[in-house]
Structure formats: structure tokens, C-alpha cells
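Exercise: predict the fold of this chain.
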Amino acid sequence: MLLSVKRRVHQYLLRDPAFRFLFDEPPPGEAVAIDCETTGLNTRRDDIVTVAAVIIRGSRILASERFEAVVRPSAKMKAEAIKVHRLREGDVAGGRTMEEVLPELMRFIGSRPLVGYYLEFDVAMVNRHMRRMLGIGLPNPRIEVSGLYYERKYGNAPPGTQVDLRFTAILADLGLPILDQHHAFSDALMTAMMYVALIDLKDRNIRIPRQRARPITHFG
């Protein structure tokens, strides 16, 4: 009920009726994996440099139906960010502004649920531009793959269990390939693969095994 009220408020606040499709019923069984690379990790001061998304339909990842854009950021690129995604200011200087990219991205995503790894960060970066342009943030449902993984592996774990939610650790545990990390489309594609694998495990009620702690051996 609360979610329904919030959606109605967002519909009322939407500045451009051309984007009312964001509130439509999503296509059954579909979702969109999304990833952004940025000038840094401050959601208030940094900006997007590349954004990518890929459609998931049931257990299929439609890699040919993808969205990719290079964005000319409004913020300076931080040295730490360059080390991560290897994009320099010159590499993105020819990109479009996020205001130009955003309408295309919204039409690609539509009303589908968003899938991501630490999705809150990516959504926060996109929402800065969304709110400025449309008066609202993304209304799409959100699915966090690290949360799905935690439930399948650690949901019934005893207190004190060591938890590893690193991106590469999840991929390895699920037997998935590690592609070129910190490239927006590769990260979106790997996130989509995680999602499909985890949903399959959940549907079949299969948990991911945890390594048992070694028993303590006393000598003497």
C-alpha cells in the first residue's frame, strides 16, 4: 500500500508526461542490469562517465539488446577513479552530456526492474540527473544481486560466519566467467549473469554451500 502511494506521488510530480511509461506494468519476466562508471565515489559531487544496461528476459540475457553511452561529465576525473576504470578526461571529452543520454536510457529501461551490484550507488548517480530533468528519481523496482547471493549462501548461517560479498567472489562461487572489470557493459553483463544464476538457484530451492570451519585440533 505504501509503495502504491509513493508511486502515485511520483506520477503526480513527473514533469514530462512523455515519460509516464516508467510507471507501466513491466513486461512479464523481464529486468534490466545496469552499471555506471564515474569520476569518483561521491554521489553529490562526482558524475557518470559511462553507463550501460542489458535486458534480461526470463533466463536469457539479451546481450545484443544493450545500451551503452560515453558521458561527458560535469565533474573532474579523480586519479583513484582513473586507476579503476582506466578512462581519462580525454577519453570522455567527446561524449554527450547526461541530459542528452538520459532520455534514451529511460526508454531502454522502461518500467522493468533494475538489477545491479551495489545498485544504490548507480541509482543515486542517475537520480541526480533524473530529478533535475523530470522532478523524480527512478521509480523502477530494484534488485540487488549481492542480497540475492547473501540469501542463497548466508541466509541460514550461524552467527559469526565470515561473509564475502565481493564481486569477483560471487562470480567465482557461481562458476561464472570474470570479464573486463570496471567496464560499464562488462559489469552489467556479469551482473546479469549473476542474477540469472541466483534466480535459478532460488527457483530450485538450492543453497550455495559454505566451506565448513576446520575443527580445532589440540596437541600435547
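Check your answer against the key: The CA atoms of residues 29 and 138 lie 19 Å apart.
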